[in-house]
Amino acid sequence: MAWVTAAALSMPAVAAAQRQAFVQGVAELAAAAEGNFGDEGPQVGRALDAMSRALDQWERQGGTVEGRLLEEVARGVPLIPLAAYRPGFEQIGRGELRAAMEELRRAASADALVTGAPSETRRLQGLVYWAESEPDKSIEQLEAAIRMHPGDERSRLALARVLSSTGRDADAERVLLDTLRAIPASARAHWW
Known about the structure:
Blueprint: H1 2-9, H2 12-34, H3 41-60, H4 69-74, H5 86-93, H6 97-109, H7 112-115, H8 118-131, H9 135-148, H10 153-165, H11 169-182, H12 187-191
Helix pairs in contact: 2-3, 3-6, 5-6, 8-9, 8-10, 9-10, 10-11
């Protein structure tokens, strides 16, 4: 039976399927890491596990990284990762998949969304208030999240969005500049 599995894994279609499974895992990680709904913490781990399984199978069949994996992901998901995840995404872009997995797992292990840090509860409450059209309460909760965890890029970006949506563009700009001082690698703060 092992020879059937080995034969199947050596088939180009299987290699392509594992590559696609890895790319799908990267896309799921990128979407989950956004944390827009607050319940994505477990999804981060599941995406990383799916990527690891696909990579293990891919490597067992002698798969190599050809082509641009991140470009495949970017077709469906905007790829402007949070600063904590950016080194791992850059390693994927260079084809350093094992090192990328280690880096992404390290980032996830310190991610408030994944660990359920108290600041994440405040960020989520801020998003709920924003969705309920209560911007003052939203701002209060997001600022509390930032005080609790100054490196919380998601809360900083959410605060800038809330301020901008209420017409407080100068305050939103100030928050983005503060974000860049606290998290210089925040690509989204640079972009916004």
